[in-house]
Amino acid sequence: MSARLRSERGMGLIELLIAMTVLQIAIFAIFAMMQAGALSILRASRTSAATATGERQMELYRGLLYRDLGLDTSLSTDALHQSDAEWNGGSQVTPASTWCTTTRPECTPQQDTVAGPDGNNYRVDSYVRTVTVASGRDVKRVTVVVRRADDLTAAPLARLTHSFDLVTGCVPGSTTDPC
Predict the structure, then answer these.
(1) Which domain holds residue 114?
(2) How many CB atoms lie within 10 A of CB 33?
(3) DSSP codes, 8-62
(4) Residue 7 lies in a domain
(5) Residue 33 and residue 97: Cα distance in Å, rounded?
(6) Residue 111: beta bridge partners?
(7) For residues 109 and 99, what is the distance between their CA atoms, to the nearest angstrom?
(8) Dist CA 59 CA 106 (whole Å)
């Protein structure tokens, strides 16, 4: 009886099943990690493209004089644009100059389809508000929010905010410039 217990006959099949089960679990774990990695890369790619799209919009504001920073408030916006915290009941700044038209992207509060560097379309919402900082000076705070154009219910991919002081874009010696 003890010789029969020490014999290894018949154990190969059980060992093989155990080895296959362990191997299958390892393969499924590797596959799940690859799926998660691919999704993370896709999410990072979209966030990076949205940030670049928002930076391109913000550069338009950086090229303006302080008096020209603002939005064409006569343009209608939708509920998604107005639901953002930066909307603040519609207290958006209108530029002091009359150069702002509906065809200028830096004057449009809402752009529904802006092509990003990855070829996808994004929605760009802009907000310009006057806020008072701790020193008591008024600054214009520009916020650009970028969302996927094909899924507006998803969270924004990028939110960029920049404050512009009165001395931004001053023209030395100008009698009409606010500086």
Answers:
(1) 26-164
(2) 10
(3) -TTHHHHHHHHHHHHHHHHHHHHHHHHHHHHHHHHHHHHHHHHHHHHHHHHHHHH
(4) no
(5) 55
(6) 124
(7) 15
(8) 9
Query: Could you give the CA distance from residue 57 to residue 164 in angstroms, rounded to a whole number?
Result: 15
- Predicted confidence pLDDT, tens digits, the chain (179 residues): 777 777 766 667 788 899 999 999 999 999 999 999 999 999 999 999 999 999 999 999 988 888 888 888 888 788 988 888 888 777 888 887 777 776 788 888 999 899 999 999 999 999 999 888 888 888 899 999 999 999 988 899 999 999 988 876 666 656 555 55
Determine, yes or no, domain membership for 119.
yes
Whether 2 is covered by a domain: the verdict is no
Length of the chain: 179
Q: DSSP characters for 68-130?
A: G----TTS---HHHHTSGGGGGG-PPPPSSS---TT-TTT-SEEEEEE-TTS-EEEEEEEEEE
Within-domain flag for 135: yes
**Six token digits for residue 67:** 């008096």
Specify the number of domains making up the chain: 1
Tokens at residue 17, please? 């099943």
- Tokens read off for 123: 């929605």
